[in-house]
């Protein structure tokens, strides 16, 4: 048997933001005009970062807590963000559902919740086939708004869309920051905390009980003179951004060096603009951060050990996710961890498992056992969406609420039986009242799907179904 406790497989080859270019790449986009791509990427490389390295370090520290069982991770958002979702209402709705879900989880689990939105950059999509057939015509598949258009007439990959993706991400991040700074997440703020149109009486009652008890407790703290700092800390929350880092030219353009000495300093303010000129940085004196988002992940289709994506990911300081599906061998999983986490940092890697409710029992135990034989301490996170996608008789891609819950509860139980812990969930959801997944307290059926089916890609849990899930998870951990 091999000794997995050290990291013999970790690569010692030098890394650079472009070393991925020497590796085989999957899901690559072929542009008609490579020079135009080069010019766009060069422009993105001159633009300001979207997030800061101290924010990323803060998330790293929080994910360490998650990996060690002191916090829970909630990651969620659209399958594919569209440039059109960059509007105040859509952003507020998504923020609101994530905040409300996290409140339910915090209350039920009595643990802090780390919130990461699939937002402000979740544009690129891996596809099972580069082509699709629409009305008998074979055309290029939609690859996400940063590549081509959902409109079948505009499927040519257009490099200018990368620039547009940058500005839509910037605008989205800016609005999230503005909302949080203006007190959107303050528990007294009805816009964020009211249940809106949720009809289900049980959800309304249970949720309102939590909010009332929380506001009562806060009122009590004010009366007894709890310090201002304690209370003002409750007026806002951390919300991190994330996306699948699929288009490596773009990711590379936003990968910036930070001198290790500056990074280590705790006295820096979060927004201190300190991106020094590249030429002045010796490679061994700096850390590289992907400043397009706080957290990035590798999809199930691009996680080859010798591939370009794993090569890129191993060199950035950001905490990273890896999707883990039925095709992942246990040994391969250990190798991925060795490459991405050579220093055995708890929480450096989040394993986002996505097998399907019917398959999780066949794969998760071996994956957990293989990792337990190593010194890696990843965050184990369940994505109960991607292994449970089906096609309704109407042709709509859908997911059943029951299958989603079943994968989550199986995951919790399997981890617990093996002395491990499920520490997070990764969900495709929206704050809107779409009809894309079946079931939940609204009991949506296949025949309801056409009523408000909006997704360009995978089906998302709607607002009410998302809250349903949060209550269900909180209850499993309570019991
Ligand atoms: C996704 O998260 O939208 C996705 C494509 O997932 P996976 O890589 O797990 O298939
Ligand atoms: Mn998806």
Explain this structure to me?
The protein has helices at residues 34-46, 53-67, 88-109, 160-181, 190-193, 201-223, 228-232, 248-253, 260-264, 308-314, 330-340, 360-372, 401-417, 463-478; strands at residues 72-77, 113-118, 131-134, 137-140, 240-244, 255-259, 286-290, 295-298, 320-324, 349-353, 379-382, 389-391, 397-399, 424-428. It is an alpha/beta fold. It has an eight-stranded parallel barrel with strand order 1-2-5-8-9-10-11-14, surrounded by five helices. Strands 3-4 form a two-stranded antiparallel ribbon. Bound molecules: phosphoenolpyruvate and manganese (II) ion. Manganese (II) ion is lined by residues 79, 386, 428, 457-458.
Number of strands: 14
Report the span from N to C terminus.
38 Å
| Mean pLDDT level | 91
Q: Using the CA coordinates, give the radius of gyration.
A: 22 Å
User: What proportion strand?
Assistant: 5-15%
Give a short summary of the structure:
With 479 residues, the chain is α/β, with parallel strands linked by helices. The protein is 37% helix and 13% strand.
Question: What distinguishing features does this structure have?
Answer:
479 residues, alpha/beta, eight-stranded parallel beta barrel, two-stranded antiparallel ribbon, disordered N terminus, binds phosphoenolpyruvate, binds manganese (II) ion
Draw up the topology in text.
Layout lengths: L33 H13 L6 H15 L4 E6 L10 H22 L3 E6 L12 E4 L2 E4 L19 H22 L8 H4 L7 H23 L4 H5 L7 E5 L3 H6 L1 E5 H5 L21 E5 L4 E4 L9 H7 L5 E5 L5 H11 L8 E5 L6 H13 L6 E4 L6 E3 L5 E3 L1 H17 L6 E5 L34 H16 L1
Parallel strand pairs: 1-2, 1-14, 2-5, 5-8, 8-9, 9-10, 10-11, 11-14
Antiparallel strand pairs: 3-4, 6-7, 12-13
Helix pairs in contact: 1-4, 3-4, 3-14, 11-12, 12-13, 13-14
This protein binds phosphoenolpyruvate and manganese (II) ion.
The site of manganese (II) ion has 5 residues, from loops.
Catalytic activity: D-erythrose 4-phosphate + phosphoenolpyruvate + H2O = 7-phospho-2-dehydro-3-deoxy-D-arabino-heptonate + phosphate
Family: Belongs to the class-II DAHP synthase family.
Keywords: Amino-acid biosynthesis, Aromatic amino acid biosynthesis, Transferase
């Amino acid at each position: 048997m091999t000794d997995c406790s050290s990291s013999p497989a970790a690569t010692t080859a030098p890394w650079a933001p472009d070393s991925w270019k020497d590796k085989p790449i999957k899901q690559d986009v072929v542009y008609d005009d490579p020079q135009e791509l080069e010019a766009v990427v060069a422009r993105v490389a001159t633009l300001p970062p979207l997030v800061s390295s101290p924010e990323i370090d803060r998330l790293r520290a929080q994910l360490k807590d998650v990996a060690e069982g002191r916090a829970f991770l909630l990651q969620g958002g659209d399958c594919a963000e569209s440039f059109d979702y960059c509007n105040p209402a859509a952003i507020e709705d998504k923020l609101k559902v994530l905040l409300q879900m996290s409140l339910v989880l915090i209350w039920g689990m009595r643990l802090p919740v780390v919130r990461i939105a699939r937002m402000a950059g979740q544009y690129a999509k891996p596809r099972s086939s580069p082509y699709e057939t629409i009305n008998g015509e074979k055309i290029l598949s939609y690859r996400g708004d940063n590549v081509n258009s959902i409109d079948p007439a505009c499927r040519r990959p257009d490099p200018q869309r990368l620039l547009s993706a940058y500005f839509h991400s910037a605008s989205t991040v800016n609005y999230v920051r503005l909302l949080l700074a203006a007190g959107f997440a303050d528990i007294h703020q009805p816009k964020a905390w009211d249940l809106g149109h949720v009809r289900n009486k049980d959800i309304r009652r249970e949720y309102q009980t939590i909010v009332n008890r929380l506001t009562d407790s806060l009122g009590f703290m004010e009366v007894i003179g709890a310090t201002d700092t304690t209370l003002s800390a409750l007026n806002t929350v951390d919300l991190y951004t994330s996306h699948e880092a699929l288009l490596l030219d773009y990711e590379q353009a936003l990968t910036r060096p930070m001198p290790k000495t500056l990074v280590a300093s705790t006295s820096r303010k979060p927004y201190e603009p300190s991106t020094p000129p590249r030429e002045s940085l010796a490679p061994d004196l700096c850390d590289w951060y992907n400043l397009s988002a706080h957290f990035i992940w590798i999809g199930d289709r691009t996680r080859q050990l010798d591939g370009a994506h794993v090569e890129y990911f191993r060199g950035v300081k950001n905490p990273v996710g890896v999707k883990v599906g039925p095709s992942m061998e246990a040994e391969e999983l250990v190798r991925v961890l060795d490459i991405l986490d050579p220093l055995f940092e708890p929480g450096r890697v989040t394993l986002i498992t996505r097998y399907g409710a019917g398959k999780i029992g066949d794969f998760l135990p071996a994956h957990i056992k293989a990792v337990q034989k190593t010194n890696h301490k990843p965050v184990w996170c369940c994505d109960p969406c991607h292994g449970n996608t089906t096609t309704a008789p109407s042709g709509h891609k859908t997911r059943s609420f029951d299958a989603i819950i079943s994968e989550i509860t199986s995951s919790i139980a399997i981890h617990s039986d093996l002395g491990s812990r499920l520490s997070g969930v990764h969900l495709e959801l929206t704050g809107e009242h779409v009809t894309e997944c079946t079931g939940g307290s609204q009991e949506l059926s296949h025949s309801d799907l056409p009523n408000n089916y909006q997704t360009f890609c995978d089906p998302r849990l709607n607002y009410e179904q998302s809250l349903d899930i949060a209550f269900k998870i909180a209850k499993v951990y309570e019991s």
